[in-house]
Write a structure and sequence with these properties.
This protein is mainly alpha-helical. The chain has seven helices and three strands, in the order αβααββαααα. β2 and β3 form a beta hairpin. The protein starts with a helix and ends with a helix.
Protein backbone atom coordinates (compact mmCIF):
# COMPACT_ATOMS: atom_id res chain seq x y z
CA UNK A 1 0.00 0.00 0.00
CA UNK A 2 2.79 2.42 0.84
CA UNK A 3 4.46 1.66 -2.48
CA UNK A 4 1.22 2.21 -4.37
CA UNK A 5 0.86 5.59 -2.65
CA UNK A 6 4.41 6.46 -3.64
CA UNK A 7 3.54 5.72 -7.26
CA UNK A 8 0.45 7.93 -6.98
CA UNK A 9 2.62 10.77 -5.72
CA UNK A 10 5.19 10.25 -8.47
CA UNK A 11 2.47 10.18 -11.16
CA UNK A 12 0.86 13.36 -9.84
CA UNK A 13 4.27 15.06 -9.76
CA UNK A 14 4.97 14.04 -13.37
CA UNK A 15 1.52 15.20 -14.50
CA UNK A 16 2.01 18.47 -12.66
CA UNK A 17 4.88 19.14 -15.09
CA UNK A 18 3.06 18.08 -18.27
CA UNK A 19 0.24 15.95 -19.65
CA UNK A 20 1.28 12.38 -20.44
CA UNK A 21 -0.13 9.03 -21.56
CA UNK A 22 0.17 6.00 -19.28
CA UNK A 23 2.96 4.59 -21.44
CA UNK A 24 4.81 7.92 -21.39
CA UNK A 25 4.46 8.06 -17.60
CA UNK A 26 6.09 4.64 -17.31
CA UNK A 27 8.93 5.74 -19.60
CA UNK A 28 9.40 9.03 -17.69
CA UNK A 29 9.49 7.29 -14.31
CA UNK A 30 12.00 4.76 -15.59
CA UNK A 31 14.14 7.52 -17.11
CA UNK A 32 14.10 9.56 -13.89
CA UNK A 33 14.86 6.64 -11.54
CA UNK A 34 17.19 4.79 -13.88
CA UNK A 35 16.18 1.52 -12.27
CA UNK A 36 12.46 1.25 -11.60
CA UNK A 37 9.85 0.76 -14.29
CA UNK A 38 6.25 0.54 -13.05
CA UNK A 39 4.28 -2.24 -14.71
CA UNK A 40 1.27 -1.62 -16.93
CA UNK A 41 -0.70 -3.61 -14.35
CA UNK A 42 0.09 -1.05 -11.67
CA UNK A 43 0.00 2.10 -13.82
CA UNK A 44 -3.35 1.81 -15.59
CA UNK A 45 -5.48 0.87 -12.57
CA UNK A 46 -3.81 3.74 -10.70
CA UNK A 47 -4.63 6.21 -13.49
CA UNK A 48 -8.23 4.96 -13.51
CA UNK A 49 -8.39 5.49 -9.75
CA UNK A 50 -6.92 9.00 -10.04
CA UNK A 51 -9.48 9.79 -12.75
CA UNK A 52 -12.38 8.41 -10.69
CA UNK A 53 -11.25 10.59 -7.79
CA UNK A 54 -11.09 13.65 -10.11
CA UNK A 55 -7.36 14.13 -9.53
CA UNK A 56 -6.65 13.78 -13.27
CA UNK A 57 -8.70 14.26 -16.43
CA UNK A 58 -8.36 12.28 -19.64
CA UNK A 59 -8.31 13.38 -23.27
CA UNK A 60 -8.05 11.10 -26.27
CA UNK A 61 -5.33 12.39 -28.58
CA UNK A 62 -4.37 10.32 -31.63
CA UNK A 63 -6.08 7.26 -30.09
CA UNK A 64 -4.03 7.66 -26.90
CA UNK A 65 -5.41 8.53 -23.48
CA UNK A 66 -3.48 11.57 -22.26
CA UNK A 67 -3.77 12.45 -18.58
CA UNK A 68 -3.68 15.97 -17.13
CA UNK A 69 -3.67 16.90 -13.45
CA UNK A 70 -6.78 18.78 -12.26
CA UNK A 71 -7.01 21.64 -9.77
CA UNK A 72 -8.06 19.11 -7.13
CA UNK A 73 -5.08 16.95 -8.16
CA UNK A 74 -2.72 19.90 -7.72
CA UNK A 75 -4.16 20.66 -4.27
CA UNK A 76 -3.90 17.00 -3.27
CA UNK A 77 -0.32 16.84 -4.58
CA UNK A 78 0.68 19.92 -2.57
CA UNK A 79 -0.81 18.46 0.62
CA UNK A 80 0.74 15.04 -0.02
CA UNK A 81 4.18 16.54 -0.68
CA UNK A 82 4.03 18.48 2.59
CA UNK A 83 2.99 15.36 4.50
CA UNK A 84 5.57 13.28 2.65
CA UNK A 85 8.32 15.75 3.53
CA UNK A 86 7.40 15.49 7.22
CA UNK A 87 7.49 11.70 7.02
CA UNK A 88 10.84 11.76 5.19
CA UNK A 89 12.37 14.05 7.80
CA UNK A 90 11.03 11.89 10.64
CA UNK A 91 12.30 8.69 9.02
CA UNK A 92 15.72 10.20 8.36
CA UNK A 93 15.98 11.31 12.01
CA UNK A 94 14.92 7.85 13.21
CA UNK A 95 17.46 6.12 10.98
CA UNK A 96 20.20 8.53 12.07
CA UNK A 97 19.46 7.70 15.72
CA UNK A 98 19.63 3.99 14.91
CA UNK A 99 23.17 4.43 13.55
CA UNK A 100 24.42 4.73 17.13
CA UNK A 101 23.45 1.15 17.91
CA UNK A 102 24.24 -0.45 14.55
CA UNK A 103 27.23 -2.39 13.35
CA UNK A 104 29.37 -0.95 10.53
CA UNK A 105 27.64 -3.31 8.06
CA UNK A 106 24.18 -2.15 9.18
CA UNK A 107 25.27 1.50 8.99
CA UNK A 108 26.05 1.00 5.28
CA UNK A 109 22.48 -0.23 4.75
CA UNK A 110 21.07 2.70 6.72
CA UNK A 111 23.13 5.19 4.70
CA UNK A 112 21.73 3.76 1.46
CA UNK A 113 18.16 3.89 2.80
CA UNK A 114 18.60 7.46 4.10
CA UNK A 115 19.95 8.62 0.72
CA UNK A 116 17.04 6.97 -1.11
CA UNK A 117 14.55 8.54 1.30
CA UNK A 118 16.03 12.01 0.83
CA UNK A 119 16.07 11.66 -2.96
CA UNK A 120 12.49 10.30 -2.91
CA UNK A 121 13.78 7.22 -4.73
CA UNK A 122 12.01 3.88 -4.43
CA UNK A 123 13.87 1.94 -1.77
CA UNK A 124 13.35 -1.40 -3.50
CA UNK A 125 14.11 -0.06 -6.99
CA UNK A 126 13.14 -2.54 -9.67
CA UNK A 127 11.39 -4.76 -7.11
CA UNK A 128 8.84 -2.15 -6.02
CA UNK A 129 5.87 -3.87 -7.70
CA UNK A 130 6.81 -7.22 -6.16
CA UNK A 131 7.26 -5.69 -2.71
CA UNK A 132 3.88 -3.97 -3.06
CA UNK A 133 2.23 -7.31 -3.93
CA UNK A 134 4.01 -9.00 -1.01
CA UNK A 135 2.82 -6.29 1.40
CA UNK A 136 -0.79 -6.58 0.16
CA UNK A 137 -0.76 -10.37 0.51
CA UNK A 138 0.65 -10.19 4.05
CA UNK A 139 -1.89 -7.51 5.03
CA UNK A 140 -4.74 -9.62 3.61
CA UNK A 141 -3.55 -12.61 5.63
CA UNK A 142 -3.55 -10.49 8.77
CA UNK A 143 -6.89 -8.80 8.04
CA UNK A 144 -8.60 -12.10 7.31
CA UNK A 145 -6.98 -13.61 10.43
CA UNK A 146 -5.19 -16.31 8.47
CA UNK A 147 -1.74 -15.30 9.70
CA UNK A 148 -2.17 -17.12 13.03
CA UNK A 149 -3.74 -20.31 11.69
CA UNK A 150 -1.16 -20.53 8.90
CA UNK A 151 1.79 -19.19 10.92
CA UNK A 152 4.04 -22.24 10.44
CA UNK A 153 3.31 -22.41 6.71
CA UNK A 154 3.96 -18.66 6.27
CA UNK A 155 7.22 -18.85 8.25
CA UNK A 156 8.36 -21.83 6.17
CA UNK A 157 7.69 -19.95 2.92
CA UNK A 158 9.45 -16.82 4.19
CA UNK A 159 12.46 -18.77 5.47
CA UNK A 160 12.76 -20.65 2.16
CA UNK A 161 12.62 -17.33 0.32
CA UNK A 162 15.36 -15.92 2.56
CA UNK A 163 17.54 -18.96 1.89
CA UNK A 164 17.03 -18.59 -1.87
CA UNK A 165 17.81 -14.85 -1.81
CA UNK A 166 21.01 -15.43 0.17
CA UNK A 167 22.19 -17.78 -2.58
CA UNK A 168 22.10 -14.96 -5.13
Amino acid sequence: MMLKNQLKLIVLKKLNDKSLSGYDLIKEIYASTGSWKPSFGSMYPLLKDLHNNRLVKVKIINRKKVYTITTLGKKTLKEALAASQNIIETMAREFKMMENICSAHEKKHLDIIIKKIHSNEAIFGKFTDEMDKFQRIMMNLIIHEKSESKELEIKKILNNTIIQLKKI
